[in-house]
Every structure is written in structure tokens, then in C-alpha cells.
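== Polypeptide entry ==
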Amino acid sequence: MNYRLRDLQLLPRVEDSLTFLYVEHARVEQASGAIVLMDASGKTFVPVAALSTLLLGPGTSVTHAAMLAIADCGGSVVFCGGDGVRFYASGVGETRRTAGLLHQARVWADPKEHLEVVVRMYRMRFPGELDPSLTLEQVRGMEGVRVRESYARAAREADVEWTGRAYSGEWSASTPVNRALSSANACLYGLCHAAIVSVGLSPGLGFVHTGKALSFVYDVADLYKCELSVPVAFAASKGPLNTLEARVRTACRQAFREQKLLERIVPDMQRALGLRPDKVRLLEAVGEPAAEAPTELWDPEGPLSGGHNYAPASLDTAGEP
């Protein structure tokens, strides 16, 4: 359920669910055990005990007293871009509870359980059930085919020429569609990062990816790339180059909102880690991205290089367009 600032009197009762409140173009202050959102239309009081996470978008300011009130009630604060598509910083709140983090660290450190999470995260990307006898290498190869086919399908649907994913250290040297893909992925990473820190998990303890401070962010984002950021990027890549990144960000915000992505991320990553998934509600009140560099992939035999499609030729039914 999405609500703008003017609709916050409709805040639902929060029982066992986690509630994310997104605010933009407003001032947040503390008042009588609650926080008050102030904008040109007036004031809206929000009970902080009903919040898991306050997402502060563009045009917001927050007082020290308001931050203290939110933290005292176990809430988190995330400073983000429009509709959460860029992550900037977070304030400690519910993250003082370490049960989720301890579980993540335990399964990360145990090779057997680590492998189970890796396979589970790969399987979550496919519709239906996969043969349980498949090895990690076979599943990784099938995932490579799935990604390659998603690029080819998005290129056909958007009528865009596609010669393959390329990571360039120089932003201006990338093709428009590759720049669009990097921009869309940056938006997706921002929302996933916000969700991860909001429930007290570590963005650095990745399972499929490893070796980066945002490895788990990349793990979670990969669950949604083929469904969301890839088709959005290809569709938005057509048009004037000087407005490319702005078009991508706008399209991502719309797609993420329509698909209720933030409400899906928390239970999905909890399910991947073997935790009981929580229900989540999202309430709404209303520079150039860096070139995307490949990370490493976790493997029982040692890290593998990222940015490489591991689909064997025998499984490649689509090929490059």
C-alpha cells in the first residue's frame, strides 16, 4: 500500500509487519512521543512505534530530537534518493538487534550452509523447481543462460542493438544501453541496500558474490535484475543521450513502485538465508553513477571472477543477439 504525505491519516495498524515510510520534501521533527512531518500543506503526526524504517528522500531535513525518538523506538533511518533508488547513509535503529546478523554470519562462515544459501538464491531466480541433483556449476551455467536470454529478449522488445554487457572504467566510453544498465542497477542496489541495513543484516557478507563491501547487496539485487532493471534499462536507453540517466532513474522508480519491490526484498532475502520471512508494508509521503565494476563470485574451490557468463556452450540455446 502506497500513501503520500497528505494521506498519512490513513496509516494502518501495524501488527506483526514491518513498515517502511518514505518521505520527501518535508521537515521531520519530534513532538510528544511521535514525529511530525511538516510541509507546505501542514503537519502530519506519525507514531514512531509503528515504524521499522523511515526513508528520507530528496528535500528532507530531520532534527536531532526526531532521530533520537526514532532510535529509542527501535526504528532505522535511511537517507536515500528519490523513491529509495540511491542509498547514501543509514542511522542505527532496529539494527541494534543482532539476531539476523548473527544468523547471516553463521551461515556465511559454515561452508555447507553457505553453499545451501548460494544454491537457494540461484533457485529463487527460476520459475518452478529445479532438479535437486544439479551441482552449483550446473545451476550457475543455467543462470548464465537465463541472464543472456533476458538481455536478448529485452533488446528485441525495445528494438535496441545489443552486442553484449561491457564494463568500462570510463563512463562516457560505454554504449548507451550499457550506461542505462549500470544506471538501472545502481538504482536497484540502492533499494536493496536500504532494505538490508533496515533489518540489521550486513551488506558485506555476500554468498554468491564476495570480496566487496556490498557483496550481499549484489546477491539480493540479482534476484530482480532480469525482471526489472534489464527491461527498464533497454526501454529507457532509446532517446537523447544527455537525459539517459534521468530517464532510467524515473523509469526505475515507477517500476519499483508498481512491483512493490521494497515489500518483496525483505521476505525474499530472509527466505534465502533460511529465516522466517516477515511481512512488509511500504507507506509513501511525499550526479553520474560510477561505472559498474565486476565483483567476485563465491565458490567452494575459491573465488571466481565476476562479470563473466558461466553458461557452457552446450546449454546456450539463445546465444548473443
Summary: The first strand starts at residue 18 and ends at 23.
